[in-house]
Description:
Elements: H1 8-14, H2 54-57, H3 75-91, H4 96-101, H5 106-122, H6 127-141, H7 157-176, H8 182-198, H9 204-216, H10 232-235, H11 244-257, H12 271-290, H13 294-306, H14 313-324, H15 339-342, H16 346-367
Helix pairs in contact: 3-16, 5-6, 5-7, 5-16, 7-8, 7-9, 9-11, 11-13, 12-13, 12-14, 13-14, 13-16
Amino acid sequence: MRVVPYTWQRLAQQRSRISHLGRYISCAVLWLIGSMVLCTHSVVSQGALQNDTSVGKSSKTACLTAASPSDRPRWADYLLLKHKAWAWFDQLDVDPIELLKHGVKGKKKLAEILDAYLSLYQHTTDAKERDRIQQRVAQLARHTQRPAYHDMLVNSGTEFLQNSMSYFRVLWLLEHFGQETTAYRQQLLAVKPRMDEHLKRRGPWQRAMFAEYYARFGLEKPPELSSLPDGMIPQRLPLAQYDRDKAYYLTHEVFVAFDYGLQRTQHSFTHEDLAYLRTILPVLATASRQQQDQDLLAELLLCMTYLGWHTEQEYCQDINYLLDSQNPNGTWGNYEVLRNTAGQYLDQQVYLHTTLVAMKALLAAYEGGWQSSE
């Protein structure tokens, strides 16, 4: 399948209501896959795994406004995709210690799969399904009981930077499942001085999230967390200044405000902030869909769902695109061109995150019960 390039500028011309944002980017969204590949202006075609059926079919999809989830369009499709993704998570080996040996951010990947199971757990009341999830979480949690997992005092500066936030997040997620974490908390106290020092190297949204974790675990905050720098949203960047990295920074500022969907309200954004987000998020989402960038699209859709902006037809087209673009094995994303160079851990390196956020976006849209603010 030939991929027709889609530019920010062409999209902006279609949406007159954002014309005040200035000149729009004429280059494609940068395709960035973690630390594995170089940023480029090209996209990877999804045609190797499935046809792009988002055009036409998605434009006919009604918005997900029915009171009962089972009455929403394509409910049966959604359930099938959800359980295919679930089965893929169940068979995925996520050993953070082994992954780190192969240059993969082990603690980050453990946090991602725990996040996937917590999302599934929150959206089921079936006792057997909940027990199934708890058994899997207990299996994953055993990795944190191995001495080699708690290497934060001896690992390299690069490894510490890559895994420090996930060291907090894994603990936070395990406690949501009721796992025993006394020893983990003791290890966290031991590593706190190094954690405090490294915060000087972290950006605005990351410091904001660290500030939340410090508060949740009763840790005294260092000066770097007492006065947080402005992030993307207060800067009011025009669309022309966005690249893929900045779009991700934007989504994470929204995620921090809602604790990645674990809390329903936010107290971070002013009316002016919300007005800016209301303008910029749909444009970025539509451009991501045109670029077949399922990872970024899913994060943008999660932001719009949390903020209550999920009744417009464009949002529903984007959701429909996710429904149409799952791979046969239950994953989202197309990274097979990297299989030979990335090795046996490609699934953990890139497919895990894309499948996580795509599934979370669909869970939130269909079963999340998020209130509309429109």
